[in-house]
User: Fold this.
Amino acid sequence: MTALVTAVLCAVIGAGVLYWLVFTTEGAYLGPRAVTYLYDKGASSYDRIKAFDPVDDAWDLARPLLSTLKSARNPLVLDVATGTGRLPLALLRCLDFEGNIVGLDLSLRMLEEARRKTAGQEGRVTLVWKDGLAVPFSDETFDAVCCIEALEFMARPREALREMVRVLRPGGTLLATNRVGLDALLMPGRSFSTQQLKGLLASLSLTAVEIKRWQTYYDLVWAKKEGDLVPGKTAGELRAALRCPQCWEAPLAFAPATVTCRRCREWYPIERGVIMLERFNGK
Ligand SMILES: C[S@@+](CC[C@H](N)C(=O)[O-])C[C@H]1O[C@@H](n2cnc3c(N)ncnc32)[C@H](O)[C@@H]1O
Assistant:
């Protein structure tokens, strides 16, 4: 009898842990391959499940972001963990946004959805398959760097934020989300208390920090990078700012279907409109 109770208890606990690892935290504690696998699998149903409201995204994300970018003529925006292109699409819907966007993600299937939804905007939306923990661009490239609903899936969120700030130009805007409430408790080590966040952002030379509640389980975090205002790169300079993930050389040589590193000769395909710098699947 005791053995049966123990077995049932173990099965229930095991099932609970498995549910937490796979569904509640979406593979975050199983490593980047698990996160990627789950997002690849769910890519085609992601938008239907999330049912984002474009009007809310315009008011909460795109319009406030544009208001911080007034001094930049054609702002260059990086969206880390862009998923199916929620933020790029919100920006493109604003007729007064004349800039360019780079969407970076670790899930190729999510990026393919983003490409499908931004078809016809290839000149303005560049999609890059890469881990946000090593952003393959030169320092101070972007006028704004965003990361919406994704920091908690990255193994080292502090490092991810540091990378985002590295590629942000002085005077540029950081927009990120931080899990709060019950969702934060369910993902220990992947979110920050307000005090921790303020300390971390200050240590990364960010000022004008504004943290406000957004949706049920997130805070929206706005900040500016300290320093004399320098212009970000222009859209024409974007390619030159892309760096080889192997040896960090730039600029890379672009051909219609590949990018090649001039120093280490490593090459990366461009397939279905995505620059494929990630090296999963034994590539
Ligand atoms: C909840 S979705 C958010 C997508 C999009 N930002 C949005 O708001 O709809 C989380 C995204 O983070 C991506 N992701 C997780 N870990 C990542 C990493 N280390 N580097 C880049 N993207 C990552 C996933 O592939 C997924 O597309």
About this structure: The mean pLDDT is 94. The CA atoms of residues 35 and 119 lie 26 Å apart. The chain has two domains: 2-49, 52-235.
